[in-house]
Amino acid sequence: MLKKTLIAATAITLSAFALTACGSDSDGGDDKASDAGGPITMGFAQVGAESGWRTANTKSIQDSAKDAGVDLKFTDAQGKQENQIQAIRSYIQQKVDVIAFSPVVETGWDAVLQEAKAANIPVILTDRAVDSKDTSLYKTFLGSDFVVEGQKAGQWVVDNAADADVNGDGKINVVQLEGTTGAAPAIDRGEGFADTIKADPSIKVVASQTGDFTRDGGKQVMESFLQSQDGIDVLFAQNDDMGLGAIEAIEAAGLTPGKDIKIITVDAVHDGMQALSDGKINFIVECSPLLGPQLMDVAEKVLAGDKVDPRILTKETTFNQEQATAALPDRQY
Amino acid sequence: MPETQTGLQRALRHPLVWPVLALVVLLVVNVVAKPGFFDIRMQDGHLYGNLIDIVRNSAPVLLVALGMTLVIATRGIDLSVGAIAAISAAIACTRIVGAGDEGALTTAVMACTYALAVCIVLGAWNGFLVSVLGIQPIIATLVLMVAGRGISMAITDGQITTVHNTWFSDLATGYVLTLPIAFIIALGILALTAVLTRRTALGMLIEAVGINPEASRLAGVRSRTIIWTVYAFSGFCAGIAGLVIAANTNSVNANSLGLWIELDAILAVVIGGTSLAGGRFSLTGTLIGALFIATLARTVNNIGIPSELNYLFKAVVVIAVCLLQSPKARSAFRVRRSSGPGSPGSTAPALVKTGSAA
Questions:
Q1: ipTM score of complex
Q2: CA pair distance A300, A267, nearest whole angstrom
Q3: Residues A154 and A78 in one domain
Q4: What does pTM read for this prediction?
């Protein structure tokens, strides 16, 4: 008896599933025929809310989805790859029109992206890239070039070498706070920075350690650097939040951030810009999170069958202290 | 000769020998790597140096581990402490930011009191699931571990909330009598716990519940109330830890605050010699365990382990300490070593001993 009920129940669920599946299939077909006439459904798998930057990024995507009339399904992976893979799988099952995500780490995406490809759902990468030989797995990568960001940061040290050598010993000792180990921005910013400072042999990274892109991590690692390294001239923090944490450690050690130790960070979130304007940070390379409008634009183009560039850059700049003071009042994030 | 050997053996049998030894070895490694590691100087009227940073940074883990010690002594476990810490910090920070006078002492006190009250309720919820509904502790607390992050995210709207209240930030960065306040708070809670459990019968009752809840209930111990109490206490400790972590950077990041601190706390408890099977606990051991974990974190930076090898290094050290603490592993090692050249007089008894034990 029980067995029969079970079988019947399964059959009903299965057929219901099949029906809905058919329904959304034909929807998809209509969409393509009428050139994005119906609302687009987008599944977006966010990394998490690990920093102010990320929350601004999330807000930009949610707001611009609303403005563009896109039905956005949003998940927060809380910094874990397995959560993100799960979210993408569920989007494939829900048969969304397009999937967009910022990968937590660079590797390990081939299997799930193959599934998306097999289900004919285009994938757009935002903000972070994946390390895969098969570039047919995604339509485009919309985001900043982290290598260039690292280069801009390194270039500032090279250009300001005389100033940056705080203790005047002819050597510029740099300590680096890395992002989450294995994450694209951490790898690329480090690479770009290292390549650029090679131009001046007096500049040397004397210590480098991960602060996990968080204030607490940045503070604890900087505390340790201040004790274990002599004559630190420059701090390169791979995001604002770690830099902000490091500022507290530097102040606790009785030094003046921005004077005794020059500080360069990447991102330009509001708190970071405030610190730059206050003179506690010397230079910030912008990494704009406001890529929502561009993302919606690209998604519409992809679904309409237009050709899109496999690499689209977000518009970005750099800030010194005066520019930060000028830009601060209109800063959205 | 036999006299001194038994004396040494008795000392080696003390449960705290191995954790203390591990801590000392770790400190020695640091000094060898950087000879100035122990340097302490005065800075702005307080002590400043690696060791001061270590005791300050050990405070959150120590606080969480104290609550965890009692929970584990009842044969339970509390996985939700990291999430409770995040909730505590989220509540305190949002209340401080939302208050009329953000920088006032009363604002900070009210916000912290409110946050801690919520944490005690959350801990009591865990206790309710475990003691009244009889759900396995690991599952019961897993509920809040997962849900708690969501709650703290909801409280902060997923944003990093920055606070400007010097009283609040003193919790982590302030100093009293040249010592960090965070560590003094943690030591205070440690002393309080020690008095309550060792000067009264409470400690014995907790251990009785851990050894056999049913037998202790039949003997007249209110095991349900005791279990309820230790989980509420664990929530309270996690709440203070959350406040200290948030005060350290004057901000709360609901996603990363206290992440994995439950594992560090469990590790601290186990390194300190408290058995996961319940029935006995050592608060001093937990203190040493927490200091060990903070020292380990500092060691990674101090001797310059590359970021990619962080976790591997920590895991290898932890495995080594656990093996050192295991009598079985130690005797196996002794047998192996004794097969090499050595004084036959001292090795023979060891062989006999392991033989008879097996």
A1: 0.87
A2: 28
A3: no
A4: 0.82
